[in-house]
Amino acid sequence: MKAYKTNPSYTDGVENDNELAEFLIDSIRAKIENLSIRDRAYFELNLITPPIEPLEFINLNVSDIDVERRLVRIKTSRGTFYYAISKKGSVLLEQMIDPMAKGHNPLFANEFGERLSLYQFWLIKREIWIDIILHVYGEIG
User: For 81-93, how does the pLDDT look when each residue is reduced to its tens digit (9 = 90+)?
Assistant: First the structure.
């Protein structure tokens, strides 16, 4: 098995795996700070909370988000599930959600105010992952 050298400066003060995970997530958040609020909220919901299926994700409505309790409601054929949202995610969603929007308005809309298509969903995911990969390899290399 090949042993990889780690640069101690990146993980100074990291005591356990949870701290390391938080460190990595925070460094990724800093890297994608230049993206739109929608795309950063996408990152928080889709990449940090338990995995949400792409169709479930693009079918989320404003009414499915409870910012105060930091919960997202996912309705599937198997039932209704509630997932916790990170603090950062709830702040971004609060900034993103129009206070006048109610009911079945799409949570994640395109530039025309329409629900995202699967293709648009994958484009956003690709853009975020490219930023993450460039960040990680830029830091290592």
Answer: 998 888 888 888 8
